[in-house]
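Researcher: Next entry in the queue.
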Amino acid sequence: MPETVTEMLRTTPRGPFIQEDALARCIDACVGCAQTCIACADACLGEDDVKLLARCIRLDLDCSDVCETTGRLLSRQEQPDLELLRRTIEVCELACRTCAEECARHRHHEHCRICEQSCHACEQACRQLLAVFDRARPQVQA
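Model: Structure for this entry, 142 residues:
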């Protein structure tokens, strides 16, 4: 999938609005995390202790929605509002961190362990993209 993301970013007439590698990694991590969180929430619903997993399910669903939205917004290269993107990435980082912390409480369920890892990977990709934003800030003012 990262190859496809990178390939699509390269087809943009003016090129990506910011460093391509970090952008592609973040988009890919967001899309993957969104899917993982949905699958984790679904698996939680099948567990015997589903009532104890209510917060985990809620955070999985919230994180999935935030990651999906972030990945979609970052995929759009034409005339980005950089402050909106920055804030969206920050919210995604927070959603992933919060979801990972909750899944860590339930890592005896394999799906929660996998979701925790995916959330941490997306959180890191968001942090790395924010660092690219910080370094490029004077150059990418819209």
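Model: Residues 22-136 form a domain with the Substrate Binding Domain Of Dnak; Chain:A; Domain 2 fold (CATH 1.20.1270.360).
Researcher: Noted, moving on.
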